[in-house]
């Protein structure tokens, strides 16, 4: 029986491993415990057009609007059309979504035209999904390697043939495989303020770049507008604003309608910039999220996780406002894939936040991320199960044919990268607001550093440096503002950049 390696244990990795185990010997590699991933912390829910008053076409339209003209339409149509059936698969796997009068309960989130966001345990959707899938994987014939770091891809004549790992005992091992599926999540640890867990260090994207794979849309990092401005930037779900919470400045005035006619329900990039600008005017003080009109009883029932967290930080949010700040949340870019998870390297697949299917464009529509992981992980497994996954992708999505090439400068430097210093540079120069001068400073700083060391922390820092460099290069090349990428020196959207930017490590690629 042939082996397939899956790296990552969020929804994408667990679904891929579970489905692939029907035919292959599957080894699932995760650098922490099996349950630790971005999926576990997803609060708001998962979006799908499953009600009679909603349609797939409307979900497609909302996703395209949020993506600011950069989505791969074919990918969006796959996402929205296949989403409902994949939700039913989750239910069959034991995910218990919240219900109202016997029907699936639906929430409204920003930039959706309908209430179509399904949730579980109020605001514990990701945890409920993760728990159900972990149970299923534990019961399946999947070899799980916890506390194991995916160090690098193994290549042979231009094909991925396995994975080099650093196991729990600190021993480097090589595992041969017919295919490797990267599902290792995002890279929020590139920034000091993030809603992501500590494991989100961009390892999959960095490994793929080193192996010569193409990446795309890496300049687009979505900042969640409302993380608690205390402790570890605990996420306050967009669904809270969807249910009626409002944003107030230091004087108590609602300010978002001065920014956008949609107010607090504008797309997250708009709300994040509105909050950041307000904080700048207030001398760096956080803004306030006012959910008091909903009442303590409702908040405790609808958002039990947030309710518990707010109380742990000393806030009674049913009676007082919460201080909030934007924080790095979701990476639209990643390893370039087709509609089946295939990359530019034969034998290498990518799904979930690690991948760039083009479905999100320049800005992710709220609660589409869990759906993307679910839909495209299933498709990735399907193409491998029926034998169509051996070759590299020819990237048939016509909406992404006009891509630009670039060379990534990976010049060696004397100083070893230090994560805190890298995070400070990225937050200051490559965060919510960008400009040529700041991006130049970031590029110069990153060029002075190199990765060094064989500990997991050192290898993570080297990965963060790799992806930080490519993000700065992409943000510098995109001389416009679009979606989550905002250039103060190019504040308008330009049709000259109505396409993705594609990068590879050593040689220019014509995408």
Give the topology:
Blueprint: E1 3-7, H1 11-20, E2 25-29, E3 46-47, H2 56-66, H3 73-92, E4 99-100, E5 103-104, E6 106-107, E7 117-118, H4 125-139, E8 142-145, E9 149-156, E10 159-166, E11 172-176, E12 179-182, H5 203-211, E13 215-216, E14 221-228, H6 238-242, E15 246-248, H7 268-281, E16 287-290, H8 296-302, H9 304-312, E17 322-331, E18 334-336, E19 348-350, E20 355-356, H10 369-385, E21 415-416, H11 419-429, H12 436-447, E22 449-450, H13 456-477, E23 502-503
Parallel strand pairs: 1-2, 1-12, 2-8, 12-19, 18-20, 21-22
Antiparallel strand pairs: 3-7, 4-5, 6-7, 9-10, 10-11, 13-18, 13-23, 14-17, 15-16, 16-17
Helix pairs in contact: 1-4, 1-10, 2-3, 3-10, 5-13, 8-9, 11-12, 12-13
Domain FAD-dependent oxidoreductase 2 FAD-binding: 4-370
Function: Catalyzes the oxidation of L-aspartate to iminoaspartate.
Pfam families: FAD_binding_2, Succ_DH_flav_C
Query: Remind me, CATH topology of one domain?
Result: Flavocytochrome C3, Chain A, domain 1
Q: Strands of the biggest beta sheet: in what spatial order?
A: 8-2-1-12-19
Question: Quick one: how many beta strands?
Answer: 23
Helical segment count: 13
Biggest beta sheet summary: 5 strands, parallel
């Amino acid at each position: 029986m042939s082996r397939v390696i899956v790296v990552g244990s969020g929804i994408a990795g667990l679904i891929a491993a579970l489905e692939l185990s029907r035919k292959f010997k599957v080894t699932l590699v995760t650098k922490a415990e099996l349950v630790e991933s971005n999926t576990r912390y997803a609060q708001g829910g998962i979006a799908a057009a499953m009600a009679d008053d909603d349609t797939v076409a409307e979900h497609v339209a909302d996703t395209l609007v949020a993506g600011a003209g950069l989505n791969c339409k074919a990918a969006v149509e796959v996402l929205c059309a296949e989403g409902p059936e994949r939700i039913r698969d989750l239910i069959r796997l034991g995910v218990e979504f919240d219900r109202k009068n016997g029907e699936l309960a639906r929430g409204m989130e920003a930039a959706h035209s309908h209430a179509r966001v399904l949730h579980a345990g109020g605001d514990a959707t990701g945890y409920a999904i993760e728990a159900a899938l972990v149970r299923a994987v534990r019961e399946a014939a999947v070899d799980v390697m916890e506390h194991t770091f995916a160090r690098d891809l193994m290549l042979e004549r231009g094909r991925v043939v396995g994975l080099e790992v650093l196991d729990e005992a600190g021993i480097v091992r090589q595992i041969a495989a017919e295919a490797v599926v990267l599902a290792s999540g995002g890279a929020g640890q590139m920034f000091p303020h993030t809603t992501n867990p500590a494991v989100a260090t961009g390892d999959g994207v960095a490994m793929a770049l080193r192996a010569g794979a193409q990446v795309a849309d890496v300049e687009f990092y979505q900042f969640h507008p409302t993380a608690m401005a205390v402790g570890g930037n605990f996420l306050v779900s967009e669904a809270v604003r969807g249910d009626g919470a409002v944003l107030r400045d230091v004087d108590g005035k609602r300010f978002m309608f001065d920014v956008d006619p949609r107010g607090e329900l504008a797309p997250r990039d708009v709300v994040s910039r509105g909050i950041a600008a307000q904080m700048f005017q207030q001398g760096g003080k956080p803004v306030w999220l006012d959910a008091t009109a909903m009442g303590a009883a409702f908040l405790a029932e609808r958002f039990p996780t947030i309710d518990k967290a707010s109380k742990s930080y000393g806030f009674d949010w049913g009676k007082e406002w919460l201080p909030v700040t934007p924080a790095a949340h979701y990476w639209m870019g990643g390893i370039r894939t087709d509609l089946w998870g295939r990359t530019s390297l034969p034998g290498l697949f990518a799904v979930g936040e690690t991948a760039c299917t083009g479905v999100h464009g320049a800005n992710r529509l709220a609660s589409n991320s869990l759906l993307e992981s679910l839909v495209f992980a299933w498709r990735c497994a399907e193409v491998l199960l029926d034998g169509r996954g051996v070759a590299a992708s020819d990237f048939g999505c016509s909406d992404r044919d006009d891509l630009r090439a670039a060379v990534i400068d990976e010049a060696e430097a004397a100083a070893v990268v230090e994560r805190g210093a890298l995070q400070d540079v990225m937050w200051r120069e490559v965060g919510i607001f960008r400009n040529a001068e700041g991006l130049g400073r970031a590029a110069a700083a990153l060029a002075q550093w190199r990765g060094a060391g064989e500990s997991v922390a050192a290898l993570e820092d080297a990965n963060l440096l790799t992806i930080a460099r490519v993000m700065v290069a992409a943000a510098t090349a995109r001389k416009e503002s679009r979606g989550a990428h905002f250039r103060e020196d190019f504040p308008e959207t330009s049709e000259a950049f109505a396409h993705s930017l594609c990068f590879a490590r050593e040689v220019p690629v014509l995408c």
